[in-house]
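Colleagues,

For the teaching module next term, I've prepared a clean inverse folding example: a structure given as tokens, and then the sequence designed for it. I'd like students to try predicting residues themselves before seeing the answer, so please don't circulate the second half yet.
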């Protein structure tokens, strides 16, 4: 009888506590939401220099402009939705993902995304699907001098590059890539995917290897070198005036 009484009391406590939990959430000032923070910095940079972006992830848009400087706008947002009362706690995640701009010379700028060190030092293979970085997604919106040489090593997400007239070396593991090449050319293009399609406004040579695609185009010499690589995802190469990046979904 004592065991039966104990179980009955425990069930009674659970039933009594349930309305309290619901009542606690009922006083939230609004629905669950994703939190974000925005920052912008500008760095003077010589025309015609080299800009390298390392370990970026999420949404990356790079556009050329006529200013002798680089503008970096970052929008960090949480991957999940939280109650308004959790805002201060969850925004601490943003401090764990740092984006550092380092001028190595007047002609070289390196922009690196630096996550915190792992808690345990284990050698594990790269996952087949992208893993969240402390629940934070980064939206990069970067303006660079138009004639810069651009090198990008992107992890996963969407890459958009527009109105940059220097050489391009763009590589991404997973996602989609759109490159808008402004007139005039000429260009030498080498674009390849491991699993995905390549589409181009230029008429060149396309080759297919099971799920992989390789596109090449050779313009008149001298030409600008466009080297594009995507592991899993598509590449779109467009020619014409800049139209601005595709809105993030």
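(Answer key — instructors only)
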């Amino acid at each position: 009888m004592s065991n039966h009484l104990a179980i009955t009391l425990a069930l009674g406590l659970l039933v009594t506590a349930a309305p309290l939990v619901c009542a606690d959430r009922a006083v939230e000032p609004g629905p669950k939401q994703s939190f974000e923070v925005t920052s912008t910095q500008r760095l003077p940079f010589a025309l015609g220099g080299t800009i390298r972006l390392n370990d970026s992830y999420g949404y990356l848009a790079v556009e050329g402009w006529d200013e002798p400087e680089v503008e970096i706008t970052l929008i960090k947002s949480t991957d999940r939705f939280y109650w308004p009362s959790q805002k201060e706690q969850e925004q601490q995640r943003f401090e764990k993902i740092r984006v550092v701009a380092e001028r190595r010379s007047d002609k070289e700028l390196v922009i690196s995304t630096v996550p915190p060190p792992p808690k345990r030092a284990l050698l594990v293979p790269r996952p087949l699907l992208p893993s969240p970085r402390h629940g934070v997604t980064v939206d990069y919106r970067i303006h660079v001098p138009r004639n810069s040489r651009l090198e990008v090593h992107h992890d996963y997400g969407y890459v958009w590059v527009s109105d940059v007239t220097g050489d391009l070396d763009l590589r991404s593991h997973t996602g989609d890539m759109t490159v808008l090449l402004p007139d005039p050319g000429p260009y030498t293009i080498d674009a390849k995917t491991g699993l995905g399609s390549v589409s181009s406004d230029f008429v060149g040579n396309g080759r297919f290897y099971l799920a992989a695609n390789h596109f090449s185009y050779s313009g008149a010499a001298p030409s600008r070198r466009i080297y594009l690589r995507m592991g899993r995802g598509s590449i779109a190469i467009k020619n014409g005036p800049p139209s601005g990046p595709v809105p993030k979904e």
